[in-house]
Amino acid sequence: MSNQLPLSSLSNFDRIIARSCMKNPNAKALTEEEISLFLKKKESICINIGDTFHKEQPDALYYENPAVKKSIIDTEVASLNDNNKAKEIQEISDMITTAVKSHKNSDISKIDVKYWAQKIYNISTKYNVPAALIVSIIEKETFFRKNITSGNGTGPMQMTTIAVQDFFPSNQGSWHDIYEMMDSELLNDILYTDFSHKKLRADNASDLRKLAGKDDELGMKMGVLTFEMNFVKAVAKHKFGKATLTTVKKTIQGLKNGTIKLSETQAKACVTAALKNYNSVFQTYAPQVVDSLQRMGIQFTEFNDIIKS
Question: Does the pLDDT at position 48 exceed 60?
Fold first, then answer.
């Protein structure tokens, strides 16, 4: 169409600028509105970079300075990352909203959706954990209430002192060593304010657990680490018949190097078993969280990659 500008008519770097102006990233041409934005953005780049551009053709820019090329690419990558982040946070917000509204007489206006979505995004992206899992567990445990401390548990994912105790360094061959083998980054982010100087966040499990009630993001980290270990133990029991220090080590190695790969059915069963151990008080807990995950469209094979190599 005459009021569209095909991407194929542009130089490679013009396309980079053009794509940042497009509402539909899969489109093959700029609309009339997008052409106007593209020309303004292109002009702005020319002004900022100055004499490094030669406008010898009306529809193409020739970049002679490698530093300029890198600058444009870096800008575009940053823009794409920002767009992807905003999209993922919105998807998490939608998960939270759907979860809250699934409860009778719930009032979404009382939930700080933006607060939770941002924190869940931070945890899920950094530690490679499905956001839907964190949403579902928090929905069941504390229903998105901030800074929770109770006799049963602390923080948004309701940590207990017994669960936290295994995080701490003790004698060689302890569960701490297994946690470190499984996810050292997450473990150390929980335990230390300064890992390089081994500065512990708290002196003991009880004090660390209390901090989960004051820092929701820290509480989420503890909950995620606890779930990861429960999942690994479930996989170890599935593969080797029981979960011991030895079989759990083998399971971690297998998940990390890809020699252990669960089918959808197997992964679902292991996630269910992990959730039963995560909260063994209520028999309905694990099935309800699994149902929530399924409503959010989770593929349980995603849990094959929950333990980073």
Answer: no
Q: Where are the beta strands (DSSP E) in the chain?
A: 5-6, 29-30, 53-57, 60-63, 192-194, 199-200
142-151 burial by CB neighbour count: b if 16+ within 10 A, else e?
Answer: bebeeebeee
Q: How far is CA 85 from the centre of its chain?
A: 10
Q: How does the average pLDDT of the chain come out, rounded?
A: 87
pLDDT, mean of residues 93-108 = 94
Cβ contact 127:183 at 8 Å: yes
**CA-CA distance, 147 to 307, in Å (whole number)?**
28
Q: How many CB atoms lie within 10 A of CB 221?
A: 24
Smallest CA-to-CA distance from 30 within 60, 10, 6, 58 is with 6
Give the per-residue pLDDT at 113.
97
**pLDDT over 60 at 256, yes or no:** yes
3-state secondary structure of 154: strand
**Residue 50: left if φ>0, alpha if ψ -120 to 50, beta else—which one?**
left
Give the separation between CA 76 and CA 163, rounded to whole angstroms: 44
